[in-house]
Amino acid sequence: MFVQGWLFSEGQLSATINKVKAEGYTPQYTRLPNRVDLVILQSHHIALRHLGDVKIMAKEISEDNCYVALTHDYLDIKFMMDQVRSPKAGAIVLFAGTTRDNFGGKPVKELQYTSYEPRALQTMLSICKATLQKHSLTSIAMIHRLGVVPIGEESILITVSSPHRQAAWRAGEEALKECKEKVEVWKKEEFGGEEGGVWRANRDGAISERVEEEGGNEEA
Q1: 109 annotated as ligand-binding
Q2: Of 178, 159, 179, 154, the residue nearest 169 (C-alpha)
Q3: For residue range 24-33, what is the model confidence (pLDDT) as tens digits?
Q4: What is the pLDDT of residue 16?
Q5: Domain that holds residue 10
Q6: According to the model, what pLDDT value does residue 13 have?
Q7: How confident is the model at residue 46 (pLDDT cuts 50, 70, 90)?
Q8: How far are the Cα atoms of 50, 167, 181 from residue 90, in angstroms, in the given order?
Q9: Are 25 and 131 in the same domain?
Q10: Are residues 21 and 79 located together in one domain of the fold?
Q11: What is the pTM of this model?
Q12: 187: annotated binding-site residue?
């Protein structure tokens, strides 16, 4: 099972464990070799509100005012807003992509996302760096959820901060477009019933661009 990791000091760990236990969950944690910090592992998103600013995603890259991550857990909007918050910024733009209940006139039960994760993270980082430079942004952050994403829940969050709102709006739209076209993420539309589901390229309206479950090749 994929889990997220957060770094804690000795004092922070005890208080956080008690809060998580109070909500009915059993936290799992391990000590990092040769360090005084601890890592608490908690896969359920309810624990997110207790973790504050010490959270570190298990699969993430953060450099040059760009933050990218992949996760199988619920997406935290506040956390992503905080990644780009800055006194130098006059605007923060957030895009949240959610699972809708239909595609091509058919009812959708849920979406499932899979990815070649090492390559996807690097592609996401390249997109963010190029977008930041082109639009003179303060910061940009992008996170994509993998696995099952139920109807109405977020599958992707992109946050952008900039001195002025026009650049932030343009950059957010451009980053989303680049992500859908280039990042190594594929989705399965689960229709339910006997019809089952269909793997597709992760692009808007890409009905003919299907991804085979074996081999990962797209059909023309």
Answers
A1: no
A2: 159
A3: 656 555 444 4
A4: 63
A5: 1-56
A6: 60
A7: very low
A8: 28, 11, 29
A9: no
A10: no
A11: 0.67
A12: yes
Q: 97 pLDDT exceeds 50?
A: yes
Consult the annotation and say whether 119 binds a ligand.
no
The CATH number linked to 92 is 3.90.1170.40
Are 76 and 15 found together in one domain? no
Domain end position, chosen among 39, 56, 73: 56
Q: In this structure, are 105 and 171 located in the same domain? A: yes
Tokens found for residue 22: 């109070």
Cα–Cα distance, 8 to 31 (Å, whole number)? 10
DSSP secondary structure letter of residue 71: E
Give the SS3 label for residue 145: strand
Q: Give the tens place of pLDDT for each residue, 132-141.
A: 999 999 999 9
Query: What is the rounded average pLDDT for all residues in the chain?
Result: 76
Ligand-binding annotation for 165, yes or no, is yes
Task: Tell me whether residue 189 is annotated as binding.
Answer: yes
Pick from 32, 56, 80: which residue ends a domain? 56
